[in-house]
Every structure is written in C-alpha cells, then in structure tokens.
Amino acid sequence: MTDPNFSMSNSPQPPQQPQPPQPPQQPLPPEQWRPSDADRQAAAERLRIAVDEGRLSLTEYDQRLRATESAGTIEQLNRVLADLPGPPEQLLVQIGEIAVTATTAYTPIGPIPLRGSQWTVHDQWLSEQKTPTWAIVLAIVGFFLVCAFSLLFLLAKETRFHGTVNVTVSNGGQQYVARIPVYNQQQVHHIYNQVNYVRGLTTR
C-alpha cells in the first residue's frame, strides 16, 4: 500500500545532462553591417554632388535619398551609389592652374601622378617707372584750380616691380609649366612655400 505521506517531489531526480557548447557565432561581413548616421549622411552628400554635376535629376535624387534612409545594410546603401563615381579627392593646394590632391597634380594637359614627381621654381622680375595715380589726379585738379605748374606733379615717378614665377612639375614623360604673374615679394614667397609643401607629399 502506498504511503500517503510519500510525495513525488521527494523522489530522486535524474541528473541533468550538461548542455553541449554552442559554436561561436561568426561575425557578419562589413557589407552586412547596419549603416550609421554618418554613413547615411555621406551617401546623401554624394547624391547632392551628383545633382550638381548633372548626373542625377531632382526626381532621381529624391528617390535615392529615400533609399539611403531606408537602407538596412551597408550593401543596400552602396547599391544606391553603385553607378556614381567616388567622391573627388580633397584639394590640398592650388598653384596657379595646377590643382594638387594627395595623389595627383591636375594640370590643363592632364593629371600627373604626385608620387615621385619633380617640382622646380624659377622667378623672373622686371622693373618699370610709372607716374603714380595720385600724381595724375593732383595734376588734373591743380591745373583747373591753380595753374599749369601743377603739371609738375607728372614728373613724379615710382618704381613698380612685376614678374612671373615658373613652376614646373614633371613625372616620367609628363611635364607642365605654370607661369604665375606676381607683383610683390610676398606672392613669390607664398608660391615657394606651396611648392615646398607639395614636395613633401611626393615621397608619401
């Protein structure tokens, strides 16, 4: 006869089996990551630039902008920009008509790779004597108000300097010379500083 005081809770429990270790979860590839606010803002800025460049109409821009806001992964965000060129390199320095970025010197005859390029600078100066503007004004006013002696103001002369700084960039068989007009030593000094800065970039 079963003891009424016997409880099933007092019966021995079978030992619990240890759970097998779970395999480590593989990290997602970068293209499956969720885009950050900065990623979306960068994509929106690239779309805006594409409109300015004439690559997208305003309708296309609006559609793609909505797609950047709803993109759930980096891969989906990249699809919005897939048929657009990458953003242009940041302009580091402008020497005359030569635009220099971190990798390239853009000239009117075409781009020249910056790495390994050679830069030279030569300046040429000319001096000339001219009647200053103030002397011409005083001579005209004085002629009507005083007498012809006021024309003596026209004998005043001042020496003016002007010249050209030639900046040459070459790499392999490519070469371009920018001829930059200058009117004072401060401009010349500035150009020399710019070229020295670019020379430091050519070895990176």
Walk me through this protein's architecture.
β3 and β4 (110-113) form a beta hairpin. This protein has five helices and seven strands; from the N terminus they run αααβββββαββα. It is elongated and about 120 Å long. The mean pLDDT is 81. The chain is an alpha+beta fold. The chain has a four-stranded antiparallel sheet, covered by helices on one side. A three-stranded antiparallel sheet has the order 5-6-7, covered by helices on one side. The N and C termini lie far apart (95 Å).
Low-pLDDT segments, ≥5 res:
none
Any idea what the shape is? elongated
Average pLDDT value?
A: 81
Helix content: 25-40%
* Cross-sheet strand order for the largest sheet: 1-2-3-4
Number of helices: 5
* N- to C-terminal distance: 95 Å
Strand runs, count: 7
**Alpha carbon gyration radius:** 37 Å
Q: What's the story with the biggest beta sheet?
A: 4 strands, antiparallel
Strand content: 15-25%
* Helical/strand content category: alpha+beta
Order of helices and strands: HHHEEEEEHEEH
